[in-house]
Amino acid sequence: MQGEGGGEREGVTAVPTLETARLYLRPFTLADAPLVQEMAGDVRVSATTLNIPHPYPEGLAREWIGTHAASAAEGRVYVFAIERKADRALLGAIATTITRQHARAEIGYWLGFSHWNQGYTTEAARRVVAFGFEELGLNRIQATYWPRNPASGRVMEKAGLIYEGTLRGYLLRKGSFEDTAIHALLRADWEKLSVHADSR
């Protein structure tokens, strides 16, 4: 991916552990699979995502976790477990998917239902945005959500991403076309904002 000055920035070949005031963002391990299965299997969680199926198949969590190391080694996707510092509880996941050619990434996330509306996703998203600009040398970070899930849009806004528009009928999910809103932040925007100062 392009770093500052247009050069390639290499070296992040594994999922690192990042830190915020209340959270650790760390690599998943196979020990997390049973809880991932339980949380992602909740229809209230899968209903707000594109790629989490419902019902959630047995063994899928282990299979998914097993892909993370190779994806990070190739610099394609970095998937973080969201863990609460206070009790080391696993809360959910956040990922950044890289398009190297354009120095761009898209972030996506899900949180176990019992942990909603406590600011955890915003806190994690701010830190992953900082990781993208500081460690991966990205120029643009974006995220999408369905307007029927406005809470996800608020997370993006609080993380500093700027609303750019709504793509009508953009995604096909379970036989229905979904309007999809997109938010993004450019490196130039991020450097002007104070949001990244609060990301650690």
From TrEMBL:
Residues 23-189 form the N-acetyltransferase domain. Gene3D superfamilies: 3.40.630.30. It comes from the Bacteria. Keywords: Transferase. GO terms for cellular component: cytoplasm. PROSITE patterns: GNAT. One of its GO terms (molecular function) is protein-N-terminal-alanine acetyltransferase activity. This is Acetyltransferase, GNAT family. It comes from uncultured Thermomicrobiales bacterium.
